[in-house]
């Protein structure tokens, strides 16, 4: 009915226009043309939003049907519920042991995690986008071939259910990336990573949500619901692998896989207290995955990597994937199997490890005390383990930040804005979308204003302008290459180093009410290593306590190091951090993931030792 009214109004307006063209003044003609354009624009807006609304309704109807089927299947199980749920509390090592001695079957373990995931889904904060219906068939297939297989030759994830971030393409399922316009467009085939996991006996059983357009840390998703931090619903879960972070932190999956282009694995892992690994960009295959930024990103590649509760979980995942199965399916992946010697430390007993607890630059957001304290604790653990630890400061961090942001929005944000058109946009993305729509001179003036006012770390508007022509793009590539060389030289001069320990973020999980200007600048702590293409992982080191919160509150009431109100506001955001997880980042040289995991394991072991003491 509404559409009919709009069409009638358009016809009436057109009749008026043709009549006036013959007998009225130029002024009235111009006004009428303007009103006509406005009417067309309003009709287009109404039509497109109504179309998205229908598409969302269709998608949610299918989702409900899938959930109802899963609920019916789980309710018909004859296995004791408490026994199944107890299996989800076991770590991956224990699950593998039970699988090896045949006291646990792949199908029973799958049912356990499906039951747990379904219960969590009903709470409204599971991080799940869809249950994979075929998981039952894959488990049956494993059980039918179980007797014929040689146990020692099985992969570390054989028979283990795994969760998959939604943009890691699975045949028959959407990769919406939080965009309604991408609903009801199922992938035609599995990506290489999923094919290898299935070939190695892992069972993908759920897809997990992303933040909108995979470009924010807030966890907002208009299709599947928002992913909130399990340690406090008023805190953000991080992004874009927010669904994985939420699911794993609530023990609803033994191990999961996300993607990382600016910290999308490491940030949710940090905010949700998980171990994670962003490998070198070509160490694991990303062939066949959904990429909605393929026409806007340059010199940056989305890296797929594991997320879990312990470092050994990540090592199991890497061992499973770094096999001829992956090397044969993707010729761009170098045939480098998992290096057990480097992981165990047999090749080099004592390492030279650099560290920093803050990026000391007035244009970079500064870390809060609890982050610095945990870096120092990690340093002490490494020294106690016999490693040489030296201070290190990345060269010119504000330049690195600018280069990274220019690469991230190399097209000036045109592709992102086209994806966001007519979508219900979350506040964090809305701010970025607004800035991307400003003329270049306005963005430049905004940065000057912000720098003069005090919040220098938020003065990044100009970096979103993109490369305006071919020569500008070539100049950008040259600057990136030179910075990578500069960083490599600093790395060598400081040691040479084997790895670095540093912050993942300037603070623990921030409140969901925080404005984007206090959230987005923190991405420099992870984005630096996407710019450099260095592997980086996260390892939990503890939780913020009452003393940490009090120190931040005291800091918020006195002048901050940058001499502006911005740092004080960051400190005041730490109100309520007591009980939130704190995580540190470990960085290595390209294709040295095993060394990164080795150092992470040492830090993790020191935390376990402290608990016993």
From TrEMBL:
Query: Which residues are catalytic?
Result: 165, 240, 264
Q: Please, which domain of life does this record's source organism belong to?
A: Eukaryota
Q: Name one GO molecular function term.
A: amidase activity
What's a GO biological-process term for it? fatty acid catabolic process
The Amidase domain sits at 111-597
One Pfam entry for this protein is: Amidase
PANTHER family named among the record's database cross-references? FATTY ACID AMIDE HYDROLASE (PTHR45847)
Any idea what this protein is called? Amidase domain-containing protein
Q: Which organism is it from?
A: Calicophoron daubneyi (Rumen fluke)
């Amino acid at each position: 009915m509404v559409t009919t009214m709009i069409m009638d109004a358009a016809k009436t307006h057109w009749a008026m226009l043709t009549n006036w063209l013959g007998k009225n003044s130029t002024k009235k003609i111009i006004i009428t043309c303007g009103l006509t354009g406005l009417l067309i624009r309003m009709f287009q807006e109404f039509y497109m939003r109504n179309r998205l609304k229908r598409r969302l309704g269709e998608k949610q109807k299918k989702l409900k049907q899938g959930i109802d089927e899963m609920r019916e299947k789980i309710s018909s199980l004859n296995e004791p519920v408490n026994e199944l749920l107890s299996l989800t509390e076991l770590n991956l090592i224990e699950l593998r042991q039970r699988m090896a001695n045949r006291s646990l079957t792949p199908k029973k373990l799958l049912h356990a995690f499906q039951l747990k995931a379904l219960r969590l889904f009903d709470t409204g904060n599971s991080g799940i986008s869809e249950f994979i219906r075929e998981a039952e068939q894959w488990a049956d297939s494993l059980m039918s071939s179980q007797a014929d297989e040689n146990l020692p030759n099985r992969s570390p994830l054989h028979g283990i259910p795994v969760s998959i971030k939604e943009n890691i393409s699975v045949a028959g399922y959407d990769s919406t990336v939080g965009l309604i316009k991408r609903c009801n467009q199922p992938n035609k085939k599995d990506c290489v990573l999923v094919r290898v996991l299935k070939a190695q006996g892992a069972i993908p059983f759920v897809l997990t949500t992303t933040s909108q357009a995979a470009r924010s840390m807030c966890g907002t998703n208009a299709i599947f619901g928002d992913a909130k931090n399990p340690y406090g619903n008023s805190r953000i879960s991080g992004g874009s692998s927010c669904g994985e972070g939420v699911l794993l932190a609530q023990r609803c999956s033994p191990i999961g896989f996300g993607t990382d282009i600016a910290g999308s694995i490491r940030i949710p892992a940090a905010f949700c207290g998980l171990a994670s690994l962003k490998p070198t960009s070509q160490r694991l295959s990303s062939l066949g995955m959904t990429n909605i930024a393929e026409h806007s990103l340059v010199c940056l590649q989305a890296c797929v990597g594991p997320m879990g509760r312990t470092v050994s979980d990540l090592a199991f995942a890497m061992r499973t994937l770094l096999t001829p199965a992956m090397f044969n399916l993707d010729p761009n992946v170098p045939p480098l199997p998992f290096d057990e010697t480097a992981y165990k430390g047999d090749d080099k007993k004592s390492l030279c490890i650099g560290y920093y607890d803050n990026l000391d630059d007035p244009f970079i957001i500064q870390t809060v005390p609890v982050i610095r304290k945990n870096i120092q604790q990690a340093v002490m653990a490494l020294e106690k383990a016999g490693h040489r630890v030296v201070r290190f400061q990345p060269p010119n961090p504000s330049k690195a930040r600018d280069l990274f942001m220019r690469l991230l929005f190399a097209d000036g944000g045109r592709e992102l804005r086209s994806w966001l058109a007519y979508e219900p946009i979350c506040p964090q993305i809305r701010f970025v979308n607004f800035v991307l729509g400003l003329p270049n001179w306005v963005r430049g003036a905004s940065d000057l204003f912000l720098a003069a006012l005090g919040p220098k770390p938020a003065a990044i508007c100009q970096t979103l302008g993109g490369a305006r022509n071919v020569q500008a793009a070539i100049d950008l590539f040259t600057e990136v290459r030179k910075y990578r060389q500069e960083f490599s030289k600093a790395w060598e001069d400081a040691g040479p180093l084997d790895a670095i320990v540093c912050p993942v973020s300037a603070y623990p999980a921030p409140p969901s009410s925080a404005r984007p200007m206090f959230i987005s600048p923190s991405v420099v702590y992870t984005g630096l290593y996407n710019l450099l293409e260095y592997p980086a992982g996260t390892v939990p080191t503890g939780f913020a306590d009452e003393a940490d919160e009090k120190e931040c509150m005291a800091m918020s009431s006195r002048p901050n190091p940058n001499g502006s109100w911005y740092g004080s506001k960051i400190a005041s955001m730490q109100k309520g951090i007591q009980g939130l997880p704190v995580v540190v980042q470990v960085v290595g040289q390209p294709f040295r993931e095993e060394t990164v995991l080795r150092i992470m394991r040492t830090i993790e072991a020191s935390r376990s030792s402290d608990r016993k003491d």
